[in-house]
Each structure stands twice: as C-alpha cells, then as structure tokens.
Amino acid sequence: MLILGIESSCDETAAAIVTDDARPDQRIVSNVVLSQEEEHRPYGGIVPEIAARSHLEHIDTLIEQAMKTANVSFADLDGIAATGGPGLIGGVIVGVMSAKAIASVQKKPFIAVNHLEGHALTARLTSNVAFPYLLLLVSGGHCQLLIVEGVGRYKRLGTTVDDALGEAFDKCAKMMGLGYPGGPIVEAAAKQGDGTRFDLPRPMVGRQECHFSFSGLKTAIRRQIVQLGDEAMTDQDVADLCASFQAAAGDVLIDRCQNALQQFRAIHPGGDTLVVAGGVAANQTLGARLADLEASENITLVVPPPALCTDNAAMIAWAGLEQLKAGHIDPLDFKPRPRWPLDPDAPAAIGAGVKA
Ligand code: KG4
Ligand code: ZN
Q1: 159 vs 212: CA distance, rounded Å
Q2: Is the CB–ligand 1 distance for residue 306 below 6 Å?
Q3: Quick one: pLDDT at residue 356?
Q4: Which ligand 1 atom is the nearest neighbour of the CA of 278?
Q5: Are residues 228 and 264 located together in one domain of the fold?
Q6: 72 lies in the same domain as 221
C-alpha cells in the first residue's frame, strides 16, 4: 500500500509518501516539510491569513517533491490523505482541496485525517505499538491524555482548561523576548539554567483527575520577569527561568500521567505503554523526566523521533493508511473542520470538578 499524505493545518506545509512495509524503518518513502517559521516570527505567533496564503503558494511544489523523492506517480498511489482538521481553517482547506483534486482526477480514495490522530498513531508508524495504549498528546494547540483503543477509537481522560503546554512554552518565550516558536528555544536556554532557582507553581498537581492548566505558570513567569526587571535580565536569569519553567512543566506531566495510568489500567488491566506525541514531545529534557515513569510505574515509554513529533505529513499519510485498512474512505464533499475532537463524548473539563 502506498499513501500520499498532506499536512497544512498550522504553520508547516508538508507532503509525504508512506507504505505499510512490515519494517517500521522502511515505511517512510519520502517526507518533506516546509516551515513557515520565518514568515510568522516577526509577529511572535502564527498569523492565520499569512499561513493560508503560504500553504497555497507552496503546496504543489511540496507534493511534487514528495512524489519525486519517492519516485512514484499518482497512478501508483492507493489513497490520498490530507489533514481535514482541527486547525487553522484556511490552511486546512488548501490541503483538503489539493488532496480531493488528486483523488478525483486519479479516481483514488480520499481520506480526511484528524490531525490529532496523525500525532496519536505516529508511534505505530515508527515502532509497531499495539492497541490499547495511553497517549500524552502535547502540542501547540492541544494538551490531552487519551486512551487509544484502536483506529478512530479514543477515550479522553484529561485536557487543558486553559493553555496547551506548547502554547505556554511559546508565550513564556515571547515574554522573555526569545522568539518563536518558543519550545525549542526555551529547551536550549534551560540547558545552562538552574531549574530550582525560581519557585514556580505546579498547577493541578495532586488533583484526582487528569486535567491540565498552564495559565498560572505563565502568570508566575510574567511576575518573575517584572521582579527581575525586563531590561535588566541577564542571560543567566533567562536560562534559570527557562529551566525552572521546564522543571515545573515536567512535574505536572509526571503527576498527570500517573493519574492517567491508574485510570487506563482500571479500564485495560495490564496496559503498560505510554506514548508521547505532538510538538512538545520533541523536548528531550521532558522526555527524560517521563522516562523515569518506566521504572516507577513499570511501563514502556514510546516517544517518536523529534522530527516526527512536530507537524509533518508522514503521520498524516500513516493515519490515512490505517484508516483505509480499517475500511474508511471519505466522500469528496468532506467539509474541513476547524474543530474535531478525538473523543466527541468526553465531558468538558470545566464542570468535571476541575475548578476549585
Ligand atoms: O505538534 P506541533 O508541531 O503543532 C501543533 O499541532 O500544535 O507543535 C508545535 C508546538 C509549539 O508550541 C512548539 O513550541 C512546541 O510544539 N515544541 C516544543 C519543542 N519543539 C516544539 N516544546 C518544547 N520543547 C521542544 N523541543
Ligand atoms: Zn500538531
């Protein structure tokens, strides 16, 4: 099976070809990503209109590159998958229309992939992880704990009541004048820092459920910046603040994952795999913290390689392939979805005992 995947829901234009080879390291035939980081950097965040125009400008070239590198023609494909949501709708429309056009002309199946499912199934692309597993999905737009029971089958245990963790990284970096996207910059700065210097809050730690909150942590960072004096901050201050932020985020993730593991095992006795996915999963320091859970909770931790944690089209092609194998094809009148929860039946975080 040979699937073309297209990703355009945020600030990466990407195209990839994957196969269902039994060997994970042989599955990605081509995988090209064009980041719009430079275009958004002056604004300190993603500007949806700029993103949509840039996707439109580059998507054809990216698809052509992916096809050329893989040395395949459209006629060789078994299906065309594109992110159908959730995401910035202008960009999603660009990817969906491109995929529909190819599918329609070539008379091939079109699969609209949930971007979050792309992240969720990446561990099965890279290491044949079996269902069910617990998933910590941490990206710029999402921060959730889910049980992945099968293709298209998710149980959400927890979500954020305010910011996603990647968003908190980005906002803290912006407050410190470090640039965009914040995650990798904060991680790099933290390497020279002392994570115990600033006493930052650990929001939600100790609570019974599995929800997240990061706005209080962000506010605490802002307060520290004001106290230090924005202009007077030294490189060491910045490094210490970044390291302290990351230490707090790590404590939160560990505590939330411990609760979620308990709930996961109550539903699936013997469940022993924790997968981390989404852009923040590229963070090696947080990855090392989560690796401590392997011994303390007797689990296997699976973190895909960094380039497959951040947005890419190989994960979309792979999720499309899994959907197609499960017999799922989307009609050509599929409507792009700005919102598309993996578990539509999950109760809202607020009202579930999250607020004090
Ligand atoms: O999954 P992704 O590429 O896009 C979304 O679907 O949101 O995630 C992007 C997010 C950004 O907030 C970025 O700052 C964060 O992932 N990120 C990181 C790292 N690399 C990317 N956060 C922490 N540490 C990193 N190394
Ligand atoms: Zn993403």
Answers
A1: 6
A2: no
A3: 34
A4: 1
A5: yes
A6: no
101 with 166, same domain: the answer is no
CA-309 nearest atom, ligand 1: 1
Nearest to 186 by CA among 196, 172, 200: 172
Q: How far apart are the C-alpha atoms of 143 and 26, rounded to whole Å?
A: 30
Using a 6 Å cutoff on CB, does residue 140 contact ligand 1?
yes
pLDDT confidence of residue 353? 47
Q: Are 320 and 259 contained in the same domain?
A: no
- 276 and 148, same structural domain? yes
Residue 115 CA, closest ligand 1 atom number: 6
pLDDT score at 354? 45
Say if CB 169 and CB 183 are below 8 A apart: yes
- pLDDT per residue as tens digits for the range 254-278: 999 999 999 999 999 999 999 999 9
Residue 192: other Cβ atoms inside 10 A: 13
The answer to whether residue 186 sits within a structural domain is yes
Q: Is the CB of 180 under 6 A from ligand 1?
A: no
What per-residue confidence (pLDDT) applies to 230?
84
Q: Is the CB of 118 under 6 A from ligand 1?
A: no
The C-alpha R_g of the chain, in whole angstroms, comes to 20
pLDDT at 350: 67
204 plus 287 within the same structural domain: yes
- Please identify every stretch of the chain with a pLDDT value under 70, giving residue numbers as ranges: 350-356
Residue 244 forms part of a structural domain:
yes
Residues 245, 159 share a domain: yes
Its domain, for residue 285, covers 132-305
**Beta-bridge partners for 31:** 16
Report the pLDDT value the prediction gives residue 142, as an integer from 0 to 100. 94
C-alpha 47 to ligand 2 mean position (Å): 16
CATH of the domain at 111: 3.30.420.40
Q: Are residues 282 and 175 in the same domain?
A: yes
pLDDT in tens, 42-67: 888 889 999 999 999 999 999 999 99
Name the pTM for this structure.
0.95
- Spatial strand order in the sheet of 133-138: 153-159, 143-150, 133-138, 273-277, 300-302
